[in-house]
Amino acid sequence: MNFLTRFRFLPRVSTPKVMSFEDSVSRLGSAIKDLVASAAKDDPSLAGKSEKDQAEVVQWIEKVGQGDIVKADNFKDLNSVLLPRTYIATNYLTAADVALYGALHPIISKLQAPEYHSHPSITRYFDHIQSIPPVRKAADASSNYTLVSFDLVHTPKIDRTPEPPKKKEKKDKAATIDSASPPAPAAAATSTAEVPIDEGKIQKKEKKEKKEKPAVDAAKEAKKESKKGGGGKAAPADEGEPVPSMIDLRVGHILDVQKHPDADGLYIEQIDIGEETGPRTVVSGLVHYIPIEQMRNKYLVAVCNLKPANMRGVKSFAMVLCATSKDGKEGGIELIQPPENSKPGDRVYFEGAEFENATPLSQLNPKKKIFETVQPGFITLESKEAAWVNPATGSTHKIRTKDGVCVAPTLVGASLS
């Protein structure tokens, strides 16, 4: 029986009615029960905001109470379950997360870097939950749940560089052709009796070289095309005038934020943008403009197809979209906010028939300066809504998700970058 079969569905045969939230909490170990009660004391929503959510919360608390879910043998399965999730039961913090955090704590607190790096989704989830204010407050009130520190800066990085197998094969083939054609003079250094045969071989080799030379040229051309910016559909996609729909914008959720150890003005964030590979490491120069408390657990808009850049020794795999006051940085910088109830990975796009259904580039070519060309049109309107104003036509295209328009909290007429 696999993990999901054992833990996702609860047996109903011996339970004539669904267990209440209070009953499920009462069956937890005393330390976890006190932790959940303390966190939920001032926030009734931790039990679930709807009947459906409450049922999910109860089910997950029961699973935690059974104990198997946090056994080391099941870490691989739990890591897979948490991979696409920010929270275990719903899309917001609940008592189920507090209970799971409490059950994981005695195990996670004993792990060293190689061990917790081997289960990145669990580590990311645990660190996020322990940093949320109501959980931290409840944990600090108990001697059982000290803050666990993780070395996230030196987490093994995920290689996001796409592999070019076809181009490599062509290159290898070209090298094989070059090395498979020995120089003709070597064949001429044979005895007089063998000359007619060797001449025939030489002629065949010359014909073969002439015949296969186009393949070498084709490999060289493929290499040239690769340097120009990729092949297939990606190459023509960034031709012509830069347009905003070339930019890949997505909803992100900050799971962890720390100050850069080697730069006073930089934050290092772990941002969930709904990818199976887990959160991206993002470096932002916001220390002097947005307090770290206002960065934690924040939902934002991320620019996801810029070329990764090294920022004081840490590679950044995205950019946080911010609004800067029309009076300059001193006037304030704010994170652009997606609509309420947005989820990590939600597509952010520009209104307008020519943009709404367009597919962004997989990666912006820095040499073509697409973002830099389009960016001057980014602005916040009188309504504080984020938009792109076409400099040629003056038309306004709001920046939105399927659930609504993205906004700056207070800034009007601000530039976005």
Automatic annotation (TrEMBL):
Is the tRNA-binding keyword given for this protein?
yes
Residues of the TRNA-binding domain: 243-349
Q: Which domain of life is it from?
A: Eukaryota
Q: Where is this chain compositionally biased, Low complexity type?
A: 176-193
Q: Where is this region: Disordered?
A: 156-244
Q: Indicate the secretion signal residues.
A: none
Q: Where is the composition biased (Basic and acidic residues)?
A: 156-175, 209-228
UniProt keyword annotations, A-Z = RNA-binding, tRNA-binding
Ranges for domain GST C-terminal come to: 15-148
This protein is called: Nucleic acid-binding protein
Origin organism is Lentinula lateritia
